[in-house]
Amino acid sequence: MEPPRTIRVVAAVIEHEGRYLITQRRPTALLPLLWEFPGGRVEDAETDAAALKREVFHRLGVEVEPGQMISFVSHPYERYVVDLYLYECRITAGEPAPLAVNAFKWVTSAEFDQHPFTPADEASMNKLLGMG
């Protein structure tokens, strides 16, 4: 039996006035209606920064400037492993709109536990908040 494939995923931690931008997955997506930091899969020969810019623009219609990596977590799912890299990002152009997500919200870190997150994002948040 071959080992499960690993998928490299990047996500943007966008903070504004003490609130963080989170997105809800579409009802038809894998892990439907769970919340996550905006981002997505890194394509072959693509940098993390390029993937962040492409994925956040695709999902929310905003341009972001990626900063430093703030967290990494590897999370095994049933058929694959997600290597999730979280980066500090700031919006440089546009206002968020739910283009390829079910919804988005600005929430404080204290409100994270009111939103069911994907397992990989949950592990990252625990790390971010010093609980992991």
TrEMBL record:
SUPFAM superfamilies: Nudix
GO biological process, one term: DNA replication
Catalysed reactions listed for this entry: 8-oxo-GTP + H2O = 8-oxo-GMP + diphosphate + H(+); 8-oxo-dGTP + H2O = 8-oxo-dGMP + diphosphate + H(+)
PROSITE patterns: NUDIX (PS51462)
GO molecular function per UniProt: 8-oxo-7,8-dihydrodeoxyguanosine triphosphate pyrophosphatase activity; 8-oxo-7,8-dihydroguanosine triphosphate pyrophosphatase activity; 8-oxo-dGDP phosphatase activity; 8-oxo-GDP phosphatase activity; metal ion binding
EC numbers for this chain: 3.6.1.55
Cofactor(s) essential for the protein: Mg(2+)
Domain of life from the UniProt record: Bacteria
Keywords from the UniProt entry: DNA damage, DNA repair, DNA replication, Hydrolase, Magnesium, Metal-binding, Mutator protein
Gene3D superfamilies (alphabetical): Nucleoside Triphosphate Pyrophosphohydrolase
Keyword DNA repair assigned: yes
Domain Nudix hydrolase: 5-132
Pfam family, one: NUDIX_4
Family as reported in the entry's similarity comment: Belongs to the Nudix hydrolase family.
Protein name: 8-oxo-dGTP diphosphatase
Organism: Polyangium spumosum
Taxonomic classification: Bacteria, Pseudomonadati, Myxococcota, Polyangia, Polyangiales
